[in-house]
User: Which sequence fits this backbone?
């Protein structure tokens, strides 16, 4: 489990990292904490507005489209696919980090390519979902759906949906860009020269965070 | 400049033997199974209404927290770090849960109070959307 702090050592007297972690990695953890609070604030404000409303649209009715099948309604199928894609890309990212531990440059590149493809696939799916909803008349300030009890729904629903999934999608995009940069650096041998693949680990932390946020967004918007 | 590289390598070597591909794939299967179960429950509920929604929501929240725990502990490797570091992440996260609870409680209270003291709001929220071709005139509206 979590390693206990070994006794008999002065961890906080300088000269070494108190958490036995490289500075950049520790700072990435704390940046992710700050980002988690931002997303958390968004999701909590969504939850507060939703629970203070007398009614809200039914996700099973709103999110029931799927590419290619036309007018057929399959509730939640598309978002399940998106979740699966993102989890898979998280796995390939961990495998890239593992390959980095073995200093296996070619394997790192292979797994990074898979991770990038997964990220791009997710973005493509999100773009399809947005386009489809836009086509049905949904957008910031426009909500064509009614509440689950049949009453008139407010634009809170679409405002929150597009803002939060947009903010998340922006993080996926920046994550893909970072991963592409990592790939290029790996290919050029930058990490072999340094002697370690720690930067891949840091990019990995960011990528897992993106997946983690999606797990919460998926639950809040599509399940609850 | 020189001594900033050596500690990185030392720290790096310390983590190597705790990396296990098996644990990663095991975590993947756990995440997948939890998600599939959540989806089956959601779709089953949509078709049959077999459980009260609140109860189902509780299951979803627990499933989500379980997934979050596995992603952070295994994929992000936090489980294997020094306990003090784990605490700097875990304790704010717990305070965050309190934040969530407090705001949901507040939102609920707001809804009850508003429905009680603003009857106009309560009645308006009960009016059903009229789907005819004529301009969405709602019964009881001022138009």
Assistant:
């Amino acid at each position: 489990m979590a390693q206990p702090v070994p006794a008999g050592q002065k961890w906080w007297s300088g000269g070494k990292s108190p958490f036995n972690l490289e500075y950049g990695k520790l700072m990435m953890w704390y940046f992710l904490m700050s980002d988690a609070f931002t997303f958390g604030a968004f999701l909590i404000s969504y939850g507060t507005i939703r629970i203070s409303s007398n009614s809200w649209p039914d996700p099973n009715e709103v999110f029931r489209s799927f590419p290619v099948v036309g007018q057929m309604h399959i509730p939640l199928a598309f978002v399940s696919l998106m979740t699966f894609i993102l989890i898979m890309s998280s796995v390939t990212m961990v495998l890239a980090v593992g390959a980095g531990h073995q200093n296996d440059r070619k394997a790192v590149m292979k797994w990074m390519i898979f991770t990038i493809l997964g990220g791009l696939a997710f973005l493509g799916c999100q773009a399809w979902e947005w386009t489809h909803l836009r086509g049905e008349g949904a957008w910031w300030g426009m909500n064509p759906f009614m509440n689950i009890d049949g009453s008139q729904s407010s634009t809170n629903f679409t405002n929150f949906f597009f803002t939060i999934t947009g903010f998340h999608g922006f993080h996926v995009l920046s994550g893909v860009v970072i991963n592409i940069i990592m790939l290029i650096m790996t290919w050029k041998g930058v990490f072999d020269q340094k002697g370690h693949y720690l930067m891949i680990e840091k990019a990995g932390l960011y990528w897992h965070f993106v997946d983690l946020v999606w797990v919460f967004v998926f639950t809040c918007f599509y399940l609850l | 400049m020189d001594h900033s590289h050596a500690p990185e390598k030392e720290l790096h070597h310390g983590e190597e033997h705790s990396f296990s591909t098996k644990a990663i794939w095991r975590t993947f299967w756990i995440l997948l199974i939890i998600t599939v179960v959540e989806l089956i429950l959601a779709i089953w509920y949509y078709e049959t209404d077999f459980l009260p929604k609140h109860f189902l929501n509780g299951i979803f929240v627990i499933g989500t927290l379980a997934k979050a725990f596995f992603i952070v502990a295994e994929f992000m490797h936090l489980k294997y770090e020094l306990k003090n570091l784990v605490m700097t992440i875990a304790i704010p996260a717990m305070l965050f849960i309190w934040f969530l609870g407090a705001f949901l409680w507040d939102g609920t209270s707001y809804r009850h109070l508003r429905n009680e003291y603003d009857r106009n709001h309560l009645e308006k929220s009960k009016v059903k959307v009229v789907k005819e071709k004529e301009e969405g005139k709602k019964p009881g509206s001022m138009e």
Residues 20-80 of chain B form one domain. DSSP finds five helices and no strands in chain B.
